[in-house]
## 1
Amino acid sequence: MAAGEAKANQVCMACHGPQGNSVVPIWPKLAGQQPDYIYKQLTDFKSGARVNEQMSPMAAPLTEDDMHNVAVYYAAQTQTAGTTDPEQAELGKQIFMAGNADTGVPACSGCHGAEGLGLNLAKFPRLAGQHADYLANTLKAFRASERANDPNAMMQGTAARLTDDEITAVAQYLQGLGQ
């Protein structure tokens, strides 16, 4: 754990905050995130399977051990609480829990769990408590195929069916989930 903490403090803390609790809403919270998901994202940034002008150069010098250690460290941290807009959250909860049958949007909870904690073995991320801005930007990137490192394009296909209002509502709901 100490090696992961040291590397996280050296490389990651400026954007992702102390113990992985980013205070900047466009940068994701890593605290409490699924370790296999963090590791996959780091390896994808390093290999070029996921491209981001800030993260790709940060991941490039990391070793396999560094990426594993950072992932384990962040997974063990406690995420700070988020807040939500109650009006937005109601629609977001409905989509998260049941999807939208009219547009073919599956329930987010089917992969990310009813509490939004993700599924480590499948590398499905924790969404509960994540910044709404980051989540909305991520869903829009999947929808536009600007982000494409999801297994079998699952998220691209799902996000393509979401409206901007639905994306905002789901993101708001998730920001306050699990608190």
Note: The two ends are 25 Å apart (CA to CA).
## 2
Amino acid sequence: MTSSPVLTASGLVKQYGELRALDDVSLTIRAGESVAVMGASGSGKTTLLHCLAAVIAPDAGSIVLSAPGTAPRELVGLIEGERARVRRESLGFVFQEHLLLPELTAVENAALPLLLKGMRRPDAERHAAVWLAALGLAGLEGRRIGQLSGGQAQRVAIARAQVTGAPVVFADEPTGALDSATSSEVLDALLRATTGQGRTLVMVTHDADVARRCSRIVRVSDGRIVGDSARDAAEPARPASATPEAAPLWPAPAATSAQAPASAPTSTSTEAAR
């Protein structure tokens, strides 16, 4: 059964001076997909990601976001304040450099989106701790970012992206700054936390091995989509450990009007030393 579209882009155009970064791009992304966007530097792949994520506005075209439980919404034409609200309420983001706040602890960083939505700090941090535990970071909630490894910090960023239950997560080279072993662990965590929960992942990557882990690969060149291959069976995210009992217990989406769970579930995921 084909899932419903969550993002529908039609005829996107973005011009920077003489450069046409996007040239009549159309793309439909469905719920539960993991989509890798690939292309050479300057191909337009990052511009496409930023338009889909309501970070920048295209000069022409349409982008409709159909988040579960809400009416479809046209993103093109929104002013920056309205786009910021869409990003805050419906989208999650993971970057190559985690962009965490170094003066805050892991749990404080992960809780930030909930605080911005109006949740009380104790409830927000309690819910964020559930996500950190599910991602194998139990016991590290109070550490500052400088006390974490690169892989651990990137998993905090994944928790921050998913703590509100965002139906769509955008990732810009999320493993680009990591060594190969840590990259694989972080990608496992990202896939489990998004498509493994029925959510959608749209990821820009230069790494063909990373792209092959996704259910679909979109190739961009000179501002146009030149390839779009849906794979019958992407390589699944690897389990947290060899035993079924070790699979993480994922938290339900937090509601700002409701108190978050009182305690984090126990996860026996092996903590990466990277």
Note: Helices lie at 45-52, 80-90, 106-116, 121-134, 150-162, 180-193, 208-212.
